[in-house]
Amino acid sequence: MNNTNFEDYYEDLQVSPNADMATIDRVYRLLAKQYHPDNIATGNLERFQVLTTAHRILSDPEKRAAYDVSYEENRSGRWQNFFQAIPEGKLEADDYRRNHLLSVLYVRCRENPRDPGVGLWRLEQILGWPENLMEFHCWYLKEKGYMVRNDSGGLAITASGEDKIEKEGLAFGKDRLLPETTGNVNR
Length: 187
Fold this sequence. Notes:
- The chain is mainly α and 187 residues long.
- Helix content is 55%, strand content 3%.
- It is built from eight helices and two strands.
- It has helices at residues 9-13, 21-35, 45-58, 61-78, 93-111, 120-127, 131-143, 159-168; strands spanning 147-149, 155-157.
- It has a two-stranded antiparallel ribbon with strand order 1-2.
- The relative contact order is 0.16.
Protein backbone atom coordinates (compact mmCIF):
# COMPACT_ATOMS: atom_id res chain seq x y z
CA MET A 1 0.00 0.00 0.00
CA ASN A 2 1.31 3.46 -0.87
CA ASN A 3 2.12 5.32 2.35
CA THR A 4 1.21 8.72 0.97
CA ASN A 5 -2.38 7.63 0.31
CA PHE A 6 -2.89 5.53 3.43
CA GLU A 7 -5.89 6.55 5.50
CA ASP A 8 -5.22 6.27 9.24
CA TYR A 9 -8.76 5.68 10.44
CA TYR A 10 -7.63 5.44 14.06
CA GLU A 11 -6.09 8.89 13.84
CA ASP A 12 -9.17 10.21 12.04
CA LEU A 13 -11.33 9.06 14.95
CA GLN A 14 -8.64 9.96 17.51
CA VAL A 15 -8.72 6.50 19.09
CA SER A 16 -6.10 3.89 19.83
CA PRO A 17 -5.86 0.85 17.54
CA ASN A 18 -6.66 -1.11 20.72
CA ALA A 19 -9.97 0.73 21.24
CA ASP A 20 -13.00 -1.47 21.75
CA MET A 21 -16.18 -1.14 19.69
CA ALA A 22 -18.01 0.87 22.36
CA THR A 23 -15.23 3.46 22.43
CA ILE A 24 -15.12 3.72 18.64
CA ASP A 25 -18.90 4.22 18.51
CA ARG A 26 -18.88 6.77 21.34
CA VAL A 27 -16.06 8.84 19.84
CA TYR A 28 -17.65 8.70 16.41
CA ARG A 29 -20.98 9.98 17.75
CA LEU A 30 -19.26 12.89 19.51
CA LEU A 31 -17.17 13.89 16.49
CA ALA A 32 -19.99 13.31 14.00
CA LYS A 33 -22.22 15.63 16.02
CA GLN A 34 -19.51 18.29 15.99
CA TYR A 35 -18.71 18.06 12.27
CA HIS A 36 -22.14 17.21 10.85
CA PRO A 37 -22.95 19.65 8.02
CA ASP A 38 -26.19 20.63 9.79
CA ASN A 39 -24.16 22.01 12.71
CA ILE A 40 -23.96 25.69 11.82
CA ALA A 41 -21.18 26.51 14.28
CA THR A 42 -18.70 23.68 13.61
CA GLY A 43 -20.05 21.69 10.66
CA ASN A 44 -17.53 20.47 8.10
CA LEU A 45 -18.75 18.12 5.35
CA GLU A 46 -15.28 16.90 4.37
CA ARG A 47 -14.31 16.09 7.97
CA PHE A 48 -17.71 14.46 8.57
CA GLN A 49 -17.22 12.21 5.52
CA VAL A 50 -13.73 11.21 6.73
CA LEU A 51 -15.14 10.31 10.16
CA THR A 52 -18.01 8.35 8.65
CA THR A 53 -15.69 6.33 6.42
CA ALA A 54 -13.38 5.59 9.37
CA HIS A 55 -16.31 4.49 11.51
CA ARG A 56 -17.76 2.31 8.73
CA ILE A 57 -14.45 0.42 8.41
CA LEU A 58 -13.58 0.19 12.11
CA SER A 59 -17.06 -0.80 13.28
CA ASP A 60 -17.22 -3.83 10.97
CA PRO A 61 -15.12 -6.66 12.49
CA GLU A 62 -14.13 -8.16 9.12
CA LYS A 63 -13.26 -4.82 7.52
CA ARG A 64 -11.36 -3.78 10.64
CA ALA A 65 -9.30 -6.97 10.67
CA ALA A 66 -8.35 -6.49 7.02
CA TYR A 67 -7.58 -2.81 7.65
CA ASP A 68 -5.43 -3.65 10.69
CA VAL A 69 -3.10 -5.74 8.51
CA SER A 70 -2.49 -2.77 6.20
CA TYR A 71 -2.30 -0.41 9.18
CA GLU A 72 0.50 -2.39 10.82
CA GLU A 73 2.46 -2.63 7.57
CA ASN A 74 2.14 1.09 7.00
CA ARG A 75 2.87 2.08 10.59
CA SER A 76 5.98 -0.05 10.95
CA GLY A 77 7.88 1.54 8.11
CA ARG A 78 6.45 4.98 7.58
CA TRP A 79 8.44 7.18 9.93
CA GLN A 80 11.17 5.20 11.60
CA ASN A 81 13.35 5.09 8.51
CA PHE A 82 13.36 8.90 8.39
CA PHE A 83 15.15 9.33 11.66
CA GLN A 84 18.75 8.79 12.63
CA ALA A 85 19.77 7.63 16.08
CA ILE A 86 19.39 10.38 18.66
CA PRO A 87 22.73 11.33 20.27
CA GLU A 88 22.02 10.02 23.77
CA GLY A 89 23.68 11.70 26.72
CA LYS A 90 24.47 14.92 24.89
CA LEU A 91 23.03 18.31 25.68
CA GLU A 92 21.91 18.59 22.07
CA ALA A 93 19.64 15.54 22.45
CA ASP A 94 16.61 17.59 23.56
CA ASP A 95 16.96 20.06 20.70
CA TYR A 96 17.43 17.13 18.33
CA ARG A 97 14.24 15.50 19.63
CA ARG A 98 12.26 18.72 19.32
CA ASN A 99 13.48 19.09 15.74
CA HIS A 100 12.22 15.56 15.02
CA LEU A 101 8.83 16.36 16.54
CA LEU A 102 8.49 19.60 14.59
CA SER A 103 9.59 17.79 11.42
CA VAL A 104 6.73 15.30 11.76
CA LEU A 105 4.27 18.16 12.30
CA TYR A 106 5.73 20.05 9.34
CA VAL A 107 5.30 17.06 7.03
CA ARG A 108 1.75 16.52 8.30
CA CYS A 109 0.93 20.17 7.59
CA ARG A 110 2.39 19.86 4.09
CA GLU A 111 0.31 16.73 3.49
CA ASN A 112 -2.95 18.21 4.73
CA PRO A 113 -2.93 21.92 5.55
CA ARG A 114 -6.70 21.91 6.22
CA ASP A 115 -6.30 19.42 9.07
CA PRO A 116 -2.64 19.44 10.10
CA GLY A 117 -3.11 18.02 13.59
CA VAL A 118 -1.55 14.79 14.83
CA GLY A 119 -2.75 13.13 18.02
CA LEU A 120 -0.37 12.74 20.94
CA TRP A 121 -0.75 8.96 20.91
CA ARG A 122 0.14 8.86 17.21
CA LEU A 123 3.21 11.04 17.78
CA GLU A 124 4.34 8.65 20.52
CA GLN A 125 4.05 5.78 18.05
CA ILE A 126 5.81 7.62 15.22
CA LEU A 127 8.73 8.78 17.32
CA GLY A 128 8.89 5.83 19.70
CA TRP A 129 9.17 8.06 22.77
CA PRO A 130 7.71 7.39 26.20
CA GLU A 131 4.70 9.49 27.21
CA ASN A 132 6.53 11.66 29.77
CA LEU A 133 9.27 12.59 27.28
CA MET A 134 6.65 13.44 24.65
CA GLU A 135 4.67 15.57 27.10
CA PHE A 136 7.80 17.50 28.13
CA HIS A 137 8.79 18.34 24.56
CA CYS A 138 5.21 19.20 23.59
CA TRP A 139 4.96 21.53 26.59
CA TYR A 140 8.20 23.25 25.60
CA LEU A 141 7.24 23.66 21.94
CA LYS A 142 3.79 25.00 22.87
CA GLU A 143 5.30 27.49 25.32
CA LYS A 144 7.73 28.70 22.64
CA GLY A 145 4.82 29.10 20.20
CA TYR A 146 6.12 26.48 17.75
CA MET A 147 3.07 24.24 18.00
CA VAL A 148 -0.55 24.41 19.15
CA ARG A 149 -3.46 22.10 19.83
CA ASN A 150 -5.91 22.63 16.97
CA ASP A 151 -9.73 22.54 16.96
CA SER A 152 -9.83 18.79 16.28
CA GLY A 153 -7.61 18.09 19.30
CA GLY A 154 -4.42 17.28 17.40
CA LEU A 155 -1.06 18.98 17.73
CA ALA A 156 -0.07 21.16 14.79
CA ILE A 157 2.96 23.23 13.84
CA THR A 158 2.60 27.03 13.85
CA ALA A 159 4.08 29.52 11.42
CA SER A 160 6.85 30.16 13.97
CA GLY A 161 7.51 26.42 14.10
CA GLU A 162 7.71 26.27 10.32
CA ASP A 163 10.15 29.21 10.36
CA LYS A 164 12.28 27.29 12.88
CA ILE A 165 12.27 24.20 10.65
CA GLU A 166 13.20 26.27 7.60
CA LYS A 167 16.05 27.85 9.54
CA GLU A 168 17.40 24.68 11.18
CA GLY A 169 16.36 22.14 8.57
CA LEU A 170 14.21 19.06 8.80
CA ALA A 171 15.32 16.11 10.91
CA PHE A 172 15.53 14.25 7.59
CA GLY A 173 16.56 15.54 4.20
CA LYS A 174 14.19 17.53 2.00
CA ASP A 175 14.34 14.64 -0.45
CA ARG A 176 12.47 12.58 2.18
CA LEU A 177 9.43 14.87 2.18
CA LEU A 178 6.28 13.13 1.16
CA PRO A 179 5.07 14.22 -2.26
CA GLU A 180 2.19 16.63 -2.42
CA THR A 181 -1.02 14.88 -3.40
CA THR A 182 -4.39 16.02 -4.60
CA GLY A 183 -6.33 13.35 -2.71
CA ASN A 184 -7.40 13.30 0.90
CA VAL A 185 -4.49 12.04 3.00
CA ASN A 186 -5.80 12.33 6.56
CA ARG A 187 -3.83 10.33 9.08
